[in-house]
Design a protein that fits this description.
The chain is mainly α. Helix content is 84%, strand content 0%. It is built from 4 helices and no strands. Helix 1 runs parallel beside helix 4 and helix 2 packs antiparallel against helix 4. The chain is elongated and about 50 Å long.
């Protein structure tokens, strides 16, 4: 259920960006920025951007590991939805027909 909610949040962000800009090029650009930002936030919350000893220390402690993985999964889904929307905007509206 929470996965569907996070995917819905990603779609709402994409639609709000389009409602504000009313331009396909700007929608593509800002949706890709938002998607990239959410994926970076997901990488930070999982702790995968650290060195080897830090990663080992993050995964050895099981107290908050599941919570961090769930939060990072939701951020990742929001980011993927925005990046997919950005690609679809480019493919359907901005790609030159060959």
């Amino acid at each position: 259920m929470k996965t569907l909610i996070s995917m819905g949040i990603g779609l709402v962000i994409l639609l709000v960006i389009f409602a504000i800009t009313q331009d396909y090029t700007a929608t593509m650009k800002y949706a890709s920025y938002a998607g990239g930002a959410f994926i970076i936030i997901a990488a930070i919350t999982t702790g995968i951007l650290g060195s080897g000893d830090r990663i080992r220390a993050n995964y050895s402690d099981d107290t908050d590991w599941k919570m961090r993985m769930n939060v990072s999964w939701y951020y990742f889904l929001i980011g993927i939805i925005n990046l997919t929307g950005s690609f679809m905007t480019w493919y359907f509206f901005l790609k030159p027909p060959f």
